Amino acid sequence: MHLDEFDRKLLRLLQLDGRLTNNELSQKINLSASQCSRRRTRLEQEGFIKGYRADLDREKLGVGIVNLITVTLATHNRDNAQRFARLVGGLPEVLEAYSLTGEMDYIIKVVTPDLRSLSAFVSDVLLPHESVQHVKTAIVLDTLKEGGALPV
Amino acid sequence: MHLDEFDRKLLRLLQLDGRLTNNELSQKINLSASQCSRRRTRLEQEGFIKGYRADLDREKLGVGIVNLITVTLATHNRDNAQRFARLVGGLPEVLEAYSLTGEMDYIIKVVTPDLRSLSAFVSDVLLPHESVQHVKTAIVLDTLKEGGALPV
DNA sequence: ACTGAAACTTCTGACGT
DNA sequence: ACGTCAGAAGTTTCAGT
């Protein structure tokens, strides 16, 4: 349950490169490979490591347009919030979705191939949905930082 | 340079589990392991795969508070934008930072252990910085979706 | 708890199709 | 471009300290 300095180093290294081998890890933190293996397994089983993801290049994959869309729900009850949650859960262009304090708004991060398809997404998918009242879009001009590592 | 269906399947699978072995991949897409290895290497070298990251649990690591902070810069010239970019680049609690259309605002995603340290971050780090004019904070109440896979 | 070695699995380059 | 195969590398279990 508690993390010592070896565990934290493992987590730091694996955040930067999730495919490091136990051998490579063992050299970087001065611990045997077998211990790295055991600790890594423990960190995975106890849920500190939720998984491993390949980090892909948006532009190369043709979805270079990123948009942050603020969404106001039609009604602010639990049922409607669930409908909205199901909606964004099933939309592959939505990469992140958060509910916020304030006017009980939501903000979602959406990727599309171009501005035309972004516009189509907003007016054909988002706005017509029963749970949504209105949206405010903001296009990302520049990504200063992304995929920052959690401070461990 | 062009991706066929095998490449796309590899990318989809590796987004969901970045530690899949070539053997496991080969079974899932009906291709030999050596071909999976070759294609994976090519996808890495050509930049479709930027890297692999372990996905950690924020709450377990004691940084469960997530905040989206809208930042207005003091002046909207290039130098000031660079100062701000350097600032967020060096702050470990900032996981994402985007510049947006509209009033030339920025939005940053910040994680902290609790509300006290969030408040300290805003008033001791962000607001005093020369590049920043003012900020508007919004606490994340619920994460509906995060780390969504790019549509490939 | 850790190391080191042994048994097993995976990786990857050479070769043939 | 693909599969097969074999040597190299990595993983993980287990005995020993």
In short:
2 copies of one chain form a homodimer. By secondary structure, chain A is an alpha+beta fold. Chain A is built from 5 helices and 5 strands.
Q: Key features?
A:
DNA-binding, elongated, homodimer, alpha+beta, 5 strands, 4-stranded antiparallel beta sheet, DNA-binding (chains A, B), Lrp/AsnC family transcriptional regulator (chains A, B), 152 residues
Task: Note down, in words, how this protein is organized.
With 152 residues, the first copy, chain A, is α+β, with helices and mostly antiparallel strands. Helices cover 38% and strands 30% of the residues of chain A. The first copy, chain A, contains 5 helices and 5 strands. The first copy, chain A, is elongated and about 55 Å long. At the A-B interface, α1, β1, α4, β3 and β4 of A face α1, β1, α4, β3 and β4 of B. Chains A, B: It comes from Hoeflea algicola. Chains A, B: Keywords: DNA-binding, Transcription, Transcription regulation.
Quaternary form: homodimer
Largest contact between protein chains?
A-B, 60 and 60 residues
Low-confidence blocks of residues of chain A: none
Total E-strand runs of chain A:
5
List the helices and strands and how they pair.
Two copies of one chain form a homodimer.
Chain A lengths: L4 H12 L5 H8 L3 H13 L3 E8 L8 E9 L4 H12 L4 E7 L5 E7 L2 H12 L5 E14 L7
Chain A binds a DNA duplex (17 and 17 nucleotides) through helix 2 and helix 3.
